[in-house]
Amino acid sequence: MNRALIVARKEVTETLRDRRAMLMTIATAALAGPIFLALIFNMIASQGERARTLRLPVGGAQYAPALVAFLEREGVRIQPLPADAEARIRAGELDVALVVDPAYDDQVADGKPAKVSLIYDRSRDRARASIDQAESLLRAYNRQWGAQRLMLRGVVPEVAQPLDIVAVDLATPQQSGALVLFLVAYYGLFAAVMGGMPVALDATAGERERQSLEPLLATPASAGEIVVGKWLAVAAFALLVVVVTLAGFTLTLTFAPLPPVGVPFLFGGREFVRFLVILLPMIALMPAVLLWLGSRGRTIKEAQTNLSLLLFVVSIVPVAQLFLQRREPDWLVAAPVSGQYLLLNRALRGEALAWGDLALSWVVPALLVALALWGMARRYADESVLAGK
Amino acid sequence: MIVVDRLVKSFGKHGEVHAVDDVSFVAPAGEITGLLGPNGAGKTTLLRMLATLVVADAGRATIDGRDVVADRAQVRRRLGVLSDARGLYPRLSGRENIAYYAALHGLDGAERERRIDRLVDELGLADVAKRRAQGYSQGERMKVAIARALVHDPDTILLDEPTNGLDIMSVRALRDQLRRLRASGKTLLFSSHVMQEVAALCDRIVILGRGRVVAIGTAPELMDQARAASLEDAFVTLLGSGEGLAA
User: Is the pLDDT confidence value at A45 over 80?
Assistant: First the structure.
C-alpha cells in the first residue's frame, strides 16, 4: 500500500478513537442547521404576524377623526399614544406611532396640506413591516382624499395620476429569505474549516508536542508522503462535517414543521449535491492550509493561534460580501471562499451553474493546496523542525 | 558497520555553536559501540546525522557502505532509530503503534504480524501491547518504542539515551534485547551520559566532549590511556575536568 495512504489511515483511526471530540464535532455540525433555521423562521413569522394586525398608537386622534376611522376600517388597532412614545420606539418596544398636529383641522379648512407625523426607527429590522404598512395606509388615505377633492371640482382623478405604476417583482420564490440563504452558505463554508481543524492540529503540532514526529521522519516515508497522507485524512473529516452540516439543513428544510412564512424554499437533494460540488475546492483547500499553519507551531497552543487567523478570514469574507450589496464582479468566482460563497448563493437562488465558473473556482484553490503542501513538506524535510522540544 | 569521517555540524545564525566538530570513528557490526559524553557533547546531533535527519556541514558518514546523505532512502530502510524523541500515539494500542511503523517500512500481512508477535514476546509486551498507549508507564512506552524501531529487522540500530527514565527492571530487559541483537550480527550505536550503562554493555566506547572525540577504545584501553584505576576516573581525566558527567 502507498505510504501516504498508510499515514492517512493511521490519522483517521486515531481521530475516530477520540470518541468525545468526534461526537461533539458531529453533533455541532448536525444541529447548526435545525437551530438556526428555527430561529430565523420564527423571526420571519413574527414579522409577518406584526404586519398583519398593525397596532398604531395615535396622538391627537381627536383632531382627525376621519383619518382614524379610515385606519380602523383598514383593520388597524388604534391605541392611545404613550407619553414616552419616542423613547419606546428607540428601545424597540414600539414599532411606529402617528401624531396628528393640533392645527390639522385649521389646515384642512384653509385648504393647506394637513400635518401628520409618522415616528419610527428604520434601523430596526423587526419594525420595518409595520412602518411600511403604516406608510402605505397613509398614502392610500392621501390618494383617496385627493381623488375626492378633484371629483368635487369636476376633474377626473386620473389627471393627477399620469403614471400607472405596476410593480413586477422578479424575486422568484427562492430569492426571498436572503438571510436563510446566507446562513446555509455560511455554514457550509464554515464546516470545511471546523471539520478539519481538530484533526489538523493533532496531526501537526500535536505530533510535534508528543514527540512522535522525529521517529516518523526517520522512517522510509518521505516528507511528501507524510504530508499528503495527513492532508487526505484531514480532508476526509472536512468532507464528513460538510456533509453532516448540509444534511442537517436539508432535512430541517424538508421535514421540520417550520412556521409558514410564505417562503417556498428550494433546498432538497439536488441543492445538497450542488452545494457539495461547489464546496469541494474548500474541502481540499482548508485542510491544506490548516496543516501548513499547524506545522508552523511547536505546540498545539502555538498552532491554535495561527489557525484562528484562517477562521477569521473565512468567517469575515461572506459577511463582507453580504453587506457589499453590489453585484459581484466576474473575477470573484476565482477567489477562494468568495467564489464559493458566490456560487452557493447562485445555487440557492435556483440559478444555473456554469461549468466554466465551477472550473474557474477550482484553479486558485488547487494552486494553493499544492503550495501549502509543498511548504509543509519543505518544513518537515528541514532539520529545524526537530529543534526546540 | 558505521563509518564516521570528520563530521562537522554547527548551529546558530553564524554557525557559532559547534555541536559536532570533526568527529571520526568506526562502529563495527556485531558490536555495541557506546557514545559517552556529558549533556551537550553533541551525541544527539551526531545520531541525527546518522539517522539522515540532519545534514552535516562537512565530512561524511556511511552505514554499510551507503552514504547517509546521498543514499538517504536506502539507509533509512535498513536503519532502526530510537531517537531522543520517542512519543507514541496515545489513542493507538501498543501493537498498532508498532504496526504503523511496520507498514511504513513496507511490511504487511502475515509477515508483519509474525514480526510484531516476536518482538512483543521478546520484550515481554504481551499484555501491554493490547492497551492504548495513553496509560503507559515510562518503561512500557520505552519498550514499545524499541519494538517500533526494530520491527523491520534493521541491520543497524541507533539508540539515543535509551535508558533515560527507566527503572532497573526495564533497563535489564533492554540490555538483554541489545545483547540479543549484537549476537545476531547487528551494528549497534548507543549514546548515554551514564557511565555504568556504557561500561556494562559496550564493546567499544567513543568519548565525546564539546563536539569532539576525546578518546576511543575498550574500557580497559581507556583506563590504560588515562592511567586511571577505574573507568570513572578515566572519563574524568580524559574529559579534562569533571564537567557535568553524571555518575
Answer: no
Query: At A383, which amino acid appears?
Result: E
What separation in angstroms does the CA of A124 have from each of A96, A121, A199? 11, 6, 42
Nearest CA in chain A to B75: A220
A139 with A188, same domain: the answer is no
The model's pLDDT over A11-24, given as tens digits with 9 standing for 90+, comes to: 999 999 988 888 88
- The mean of the pLDDT values for chain A is 84
Residue ranges of domains in chain B, CATH in brackets: 1-74+187-247 (3.40.50.300)
Full-model pTM: 0.80
For residue A142, give the CATH number of its domain. 3.40.1710.10
Quote the number of domains for chain A: 2
State how far residue A280 is from chain B, nearest Cα, in angstroms: 29
Q: A329-384 pLDDT, tens per residue?
A: 778 888 888 888 888 878 877 778 888 889 999 999 999 999 999 999 999 998 88
Residues 178-237 of A with CB under 8 A from B: 207, 210-222
Question: Given this model, what pLDDT does residue A389 score?
Answer: 45
Q: What residues contact residue A154 under an 8 Å CB cut-off, 6+ apart?
A: none
What average pLDDT score do residues A293-300 get? 88
Range of the domain at A118: 53-168
Q: Which long-range contacts (CB under 8 A, 24 or more apart) does B102-109 make?
A: B102/B151, B102/B152, B103/A1, B103/A6, B104/A3, B104/A6, B104/A7, B104/A216, B104/A219, B104/A220, B104/A221, B105/A219, B105/A220, B105/B77, B105/B151, B105/B152, B106/A220, B106/B77, B106/B152, B107/B151, B107/B152, B108/A1
Domain match, A339 and A236 both:
yes
Tell me: do A124 and A156 sit in the same domain. yes
| Predicted local confidence at residue A52, as pLDDT | 65
Nearest chain B residue to A216 by CA distance is: B101
Residues A163 and A200 in one domain: no
Q: Report the pLDDT value the prediction gives residue A173, as an integer from 0 to 100.
A: 44
Last residue of a domain, one of A168, A197, A229: A168
Based on the domain organization, do A154 and A195 belong to the same domain?
no
Are A157 and A275 in the same domain?
Answer: no
Tell me if B81 and A220 make a contact (CB, 8 A cut-off): no
- CB-CB neighbours of A160 under 10 Å: 12
